[in-house]
UniProtKB/TrEMBL annotation:
Identification of the protein by name: Nuclease HARBI1
Matching InterPro entries: DUF8040, HARBI1-like, HARBI1_dom
Residue ranges constituting the DUF8040 domain according to the UniProt record: 130-221
Reported cofactor(s): a divalent metal cation
UniProt keywords, alphabetically: Hydrolase, Metal-binding, Nuclease, Nucleus
Stretches assigned to the DDE Tnp4 domain: 261-352
Pfam families given in the database record: DDE_Tnp_4, DUF8040
Organism taxonomic ancestry: Eukaryota, Viridiplantae, Streptophyta, Embryophyta, Tracheophyta
Subcellular compartments: Nucleus
Family: Belongs to the HARBI1 family.
Length: 363
């Protein structure tokens, strides 16, 4: 007991190891081994004996040491994102459990979460580490041959710059950690080339999360722009289009026609559990989009988002009823051409019932 009390600085009397040692010294062999050890080995030997007989408590102490290392790394790397509230809560739980030597499975789970956080923000190897950034590539395309811009963004360079200026001026596209130019280029690159998130991330040297966030934000901007762009021009319905007036095949039979309405099926990417309503007669997931086109081959209305199995007439009637969609109703005496999938009603002229119309016959 005198020898144990001499170790008071390292083994206080109220320490769990102190009472473990008293109990162990009741065994003569253990007591003799302890008394014949050097002073600098006594504490190590007692801890070793304690760990062998109390593996759970020993593991908890190791967990506490690991947490101390984690926190030291957190504080030394102040520019790293802070721990989430969930991670902090779980850390408090494990610290409490370890302090009471009450180890259970949750401690191992919490330690794993902290290790993942540490590897993600402190010891990770950068994935997008190319010096050739996305902004550099965009600058090179816009300063290069016109065909490069057409191949990458499906528009000439002057149209790209005009679109960029319009989005910044009227639709809230702003610079951030990613420039407005790169945001537009990234979204056009995905839309026009049907690129995946991973390919876009590699092309622009951005994380998949950043690419996804920018693309979603740009879709909302494009949607707002579409409301202002895909509509009839002022006074368009008052004049007879030149395509009708100067073509004997149409004039004067279609002098009051202002456009045509039809549905088109566009491929849709949906999760397997949601695909059934989107699979129609084409045998693949599609969305049915109703579009209105004038004789200048410009869209003046579009109604996307419907499942591929939806009937054209249902989409048509919804477009007429919902005022917020701003469907361009025909003025009195004017009409749209529609096919047999749409109802016959004032302002909408379908094919004569019982007749079959074919382009070869028309020519």
């Amino acid at each position: 007991m005198d020898a144990l009390r001499d170790l008071g600085d390292e083994i206080p009397k109220k320490d769990e190891l102190y009472y473990f040692s008293i109990k162990m010294f009741q065994i003569p062999v253990k007591r003799e081994v302890f008394l014949n050890l050097d002073l600098d080995v006594m504490v190590w030997w007692l801890r070793r004996e304690y760990a062998e007989q109390n593996p759970i408590a020993s593991f908890s102490s190791l967990v506490m040491d690991e947490f101390n290392n984690m926190y030291n790394s957190f504080y030394m790397n102040y520019d790293t994102p802070e721990l989430s509230e969930e991670t902090q809560r779980r850390i408090v739980t494990i610290v409490t459990q370890v302090e009471h030597n009450n180890y259970h499975e949750e401690e191992e789970q919490v330690l794993s979460s902290v290790l993942v956080h540490h590897e993600t923000y402190f010891t990770m190897q950068p994935c997008m580490d190319s010096n050739y950034t996305g902004q550099m590539w965009v600058d090179e395309v816009l300063n290069g041959h016109d065909d490069r811009c057409m191949n990458s963004f499906r528009m000439p360079k002057n149209i790209f710059h005009s679109l960029l200026h319009d989005l910044q001026t009227n639709y809230g596209l702003k610079h951030g950690k990613v420039s407005a130019m790169e945001k537009l280029a990234l979204s056009l690159y995905i839309l026009e080339n049907r690129e995946s998130n991973s390919n876009a991330a590699e092309r622009f040297q951005r994380s998949g999360e950043t690419v996804s966030r920018i693309f979603i934000d740009m879709l909302y901007i494009f949607a707002r722009m579409g409301i202002d762009t895909i509509k009839p021009t002022e006074g368009q319905f008052e004049e007879v289009p030149n395509h009708i007036r100067h073509d004997t095949r149409y004039w004067p039979h279609f002098k009051d026609c202002i456009g045509a309405i039809d549905g088109t099926h566009i491929k849709a990417c949906t999760s397997p559990s949601c695909q059934i309503p989107y699979i129609g007669r084409k045998g693949e997931p599609t969305q049915n989009i109703m579009a209105v086109c004038n004789f200048n081959m410009c869209f003046i209305f579009a109604f996307p988002g419907w499942e591929g199995t939806t009937y054209d007439s249902r989409i048509f009637l919804q477009a007429l009823r919902k005022q917020e969609l701003k469907f361009p109703h025909p003025p009195p005496g004017k009409y749209y051409l529609v096919d047999s999938g749409y109802p016959q009603m004032a302002g909408f002229l379908g094919p004569y019932r019982g007749e079959r119309y074919h382009l070869p016959d028309f020519h």
